[in-house]
Amino acid sequence: MFKFIDVRYKGVLDLPTLYIEKEKITTLVGASGSGKTTILKMLNKMISPTQGRILFNGVDLKEINSVAHRRRVTMLSQSPAMFEGSIRDNLIAGLRFQQREIPSDEVLYQVLEQVKLKKSLESSANTLSGGEKQRLALGRVLILNPDVYLLDEPSSALDDETEEIIIHMVTEHVRRENKTLVMVTHSKAIAEKYSDTIIEISEGRCSSRRCNNERNH
Ligand SMILES: Nc1ncnc2c1ncn2[C@@H]1O[C@H](COP(=O)(O)OP(=O)(O)OP(=O)(O)O)[C@@H](O)[C@H]1O
């Protein structure tokens, strides 16, 4: 689905080859500062390689409209912004931005249930804990229903039990709906349990065999 060809980004990344497969769960692991977030931002076209090309289903990302691309390939950042206002306002923020139809409260509560938030849609988002905000932000992305989810440490603020529940839910959703997921995690256990492919990034380079041994994809 994504194919990196001789990609470099400033002095940060140097990736001669990297493949992300469609309808699979790919997890990026590696030390802090190794370049994982930078890779997600490239997949989302928030930033572009300073050298080389990234193909998306065979088409150079440069040729694809950024706004349209981000509707198909949606990123949940490491510290997502919450807006003043209610949980509902925050949950539907992306839909509003994309000028899409707002679902019924029943559907919105189903999304809250999915992310294990037992809160009223009317309550303020500001008073939520860090982990609750993280789950609300995940709900905001799930409701957009993109083809590709880019999740940057989606469970970093959660306790182990909640992390397991949330990652289980997301990965089940991805498999059931034939979506593609690329996530970053610091948890080796999560990476090993849920991924089809683990890509290890070290100082901006891919240090797993994965990057070089599948040229015929
Ligand atoms: N726009 C930029 N220009 C130059 N350097 C950058 C830019 N963005 C990030 N960097 C640097 O690139 C390196 C990789 O950053 P990145 O956020 O991708 O790491 P990461 O692996 O996601 O780290 P963490 O696990 O701590 O989130 C860091 O040293 C960072 O300071």
UniProtKB/TrEMBL annotation:
State the UniProt keywords alphabetically.
ATP-binding, Nucleotide-binding, Transport
List the InterPro entries hit by this protein, alphabetically: AAA+_ATPase, ABC_transporter-like_ATP-bd, ABC_transporter-like_CS, P-loop_NTPase
Give start and end of each ABC transporter domain.
Answer: 2-217
Where do the coiled-coil regions begin and end? none
Q: Name one Pfam family in it.
A: ABC_tran
* Molecular function, one GO term: ATP binding
Q: Which PANTHER family match?
A: ABC TRANSPORTER I FAMILY MEMBER 17
- This protein is called ABC transporter ATP-binding protein
Source species of the chain: Desulforamulus ferrireducens
